[in-house]
Task: structure prediction
Amino acid sequence: MGEPFAYFEGNVVPLGDAKVGIMTHALNYGTGCFEGIRGYWVPEDEQVYLFRAREHFERLHRSAHILRMKVRLSPEELTQLACDLVAKSGYREDVYVRPLVYKSAEQVGLSLVRKAEDGSLEDVPDDFFMFTVPFGAYLDLDKPIRVTISPWRRIDDNVIPPRAKVTGLYINSALATSQAKELGFDEAIMLNSDGSVSEGPGENIFMLRDGKLITTGPDSNILEGITRHAVMTLAQEELGIEVVERRIARTELYIADELFFTGTAAQISAIGEVDGRVIGSGEIGPVTARLQKVFFDAVRNRNPKYGDWCAAVYPVSAGVS
Ligand code: PMP
Result:
């Protein structure tokens, strides 16, 4: 058992002591951007490995840039901070790390810029925090999940940019996933305004058709997922499967040979049914199963080819690579 800590206003404090005021801009207007990073506990190595932490922090920098916010620490410094935080908490189990950059000014007024004392425009002040908590499976990994196409459409790049992981944007995801769950499904799939497939509320989507792996691209209002990138790499490099990024039509999902979600929370989660249509055999498909195997080897630092995807939290002891 570990004890949760947070990095807050420049200090490491017990999680319960990290609190913001009720006038905080981000709390009122959803003006934050964040990341979710998984840490995998590997008992044989006595180690927690943070999966692709640097890439998550690079994306955090890009999201912050879109929101006119600055992240003062580099992706490398943030990776070290994340490792230090998990180590201080002393977790010996799977964990989740949540960094968040947010407009921290306690003021009324929704703009991202404001008038400075000299009359010029300045960015509304921002701050950064990070916390870590234990985290198990989010969706079922051992059996396929049942999903439905959501009536809630995915927001467009010119509404709220989906490639930035913006807190306020997650209203869209929350509406879709809650309704799917109320209807008895495990998760939703969201369509774009033009009716093409976008992604899940917190997951990217992959479809196997005619031996090719197909996933929606940045022109489908997706978050450009880090797990998605890892799965594309593993499919090509380890399984020799061609991966295609293109738009997907709704009914293609119904006739896919295999379908699965990817994401930090979801990992690789097979989809067995969409709106009552059974996908493939209804079981976890053979390609999905092989991808799960190579993915879980990579995240647990079991494949040296992908060693740089794994940041070790605890000091590496002699004899452990
Ligand atoms: N799409 C959305 C909307 C998400 O919130 C997430 C989770 N971050 C993903 C896709 C998957 O991205 P990643 O693999 O980087 O976690």
In short: The longest helix spans residues 75-89. The CA atoms of residues 301 and 307 lie 6 Å apart. The chain has a mean pLDDT of 95.
